[in-house]
Amino acid sequence: MSKRVYVSADYSTDSGDRDVVETLNKRRQDNLHKIDFVDMATVVSGSISNDSDCRPCDLKREFNKQINASSAVIFVVGDKTALRTAGSCCSRATKSWAECRCTPYKQNTNGLKTCKAFNTSNPGDDVGNINAYSYLRHEFEQAKKRKKPIIVIYNSLRKESNWLPSYMDEYKSDAQPFWVKNNRDEKVGDYTYIKLVLGYD
Residue 177 and residue 155: Cα distance in Å, rounded? Predict the structure, then answer.
């Protein structure tokens, strides 16, 4: 049985958690069960972000769509996760359209543009894409709202509860380290916890 799992992580090139995501993507097949990991970096680099006028709210709408289509969501927590604020610049939820301007995604050289969001109505079953959440928190809140199984793993060989952002505090007891040492003292990914939550125990 195949399962589609959305992976949220800090993708900063110099201090992020790409190594965990890359390891997850290498392990798409395990004996009888296939896990299709949806790498958030792939979503961001896809067609929506290629639009020259892609805004943070557009990305958040796309994240909602990908999370809704997934069986579970993995959050990779590293030592910088709690400090990440990318995506949190939107003030449209509390200000009028005329007062709001923002920079298209990764288009800082083009300067600010008028807000695209004329309508900020209730999105129903989704977390609204017009908010001041970071991208990481938005994904977390969407997974919670849609009642997806949430798997929190540390980019570490041990539990690092002090790394958790405050909005993930309720997962402090469940979150597990992703890495273990094998019999050659090499750091390798441990899928035990992930498989258990996914029902592959």
Answer: 6
- DSSP states along the chain: -EEEEEEE----TTTS-HHHHHHHHH--EETTEEEEEEEHHHHHTSHHHHSTT--HHHHHHHHHHHHHT-SEEEEEE-TTGGG--TT----TTTS-GGG-EEPPTT-GGG--EE---S-----TTS--SSSS--HHHHHHHHHHHTT--EEEEESSSS--GGGS-GGGGGGTTT-EESEEE-TTS-EEE--HHHHHHTT--
Contact 71, 2 (CB under 8 A): no
Q: Quick one: which of 37, 77, 35 has its CA closest to 177?
A: 77
Q: Per residue in 72-88, pLDDT tens? A: 999 999 999 999 999 99
Task: Please state, for a pLDDT cut of 70, what percent of the chain lies above it.
Answer: 87
Rg from Cα positions in the chain: 18
pLDDT of residue 102: 87
The residue written with tokens 């996914």 in the block is 198
Nearest in space to 57 (alpha carbons), one of 18, 11, 103, 23 = 103
